[in-house]
Design goal:
The chain is α/β, with parallel strands linked by helices. The protein has two helices and five strands. It has helices at residues 71-78, 92-104, and strands spanning 31-35, 49-52, 58-61, 67-70, 85-88. The strands form two sheets. Strands 1-3-4 form a three-stranded mixed sheet.
């Protein structure tokens, strides 16, 4: 999940809603997941790699007045998103390389 490529954030955290509503306000681009209920949640997320402009991954918990909690807190306190990591959004050329490798395979030539 790479957040913030189009400077917009969807309700679910990952993506760009500017194609839906170009006047949409920019949300906190470090929020990767919005949950209605964090305490006692039945969310089953794991082994994700989150890339955000700030290099952190935050959960927004509606049952906690939409406060933001770091991924590590959610993993420890609620057992949500085990094995997941967060990183700073890479440079565009690195993301293009990822996409090219995914589409063409690891051994490819762009000549």
């Amino acid at each position: 999940c790479i957040v913030g490529l189009g400077q917009r954030d969807t309700g679910g955290g990952c993506g760009d809603s500017s194609c839906i509503d170009p006047n949409d306000e920019v949300d906190n681009l470090d929020v990767v997941v919005n949950l209605e209920i964090c305490e006692g949640s039945n969310a089953h997320l794991s082994d994700n790699q989150y890339y955000t402009p700030g290099g952190v991954a935050l959960y927004s918990c509606w049952d906690k007045d939409s406060k933001h909690f770091p991924l590590e807190y959610m993993q420890k306190e609620y057992g949500i998103d085990s094995g997941s990591t967060h990183h700073k959004t890479p440079a565009a050329d690195e993301m293009v390389q990822w996409a090219t490798s995914k589409l063409l395979g690891e051994d490819h030539s762009l000549q």
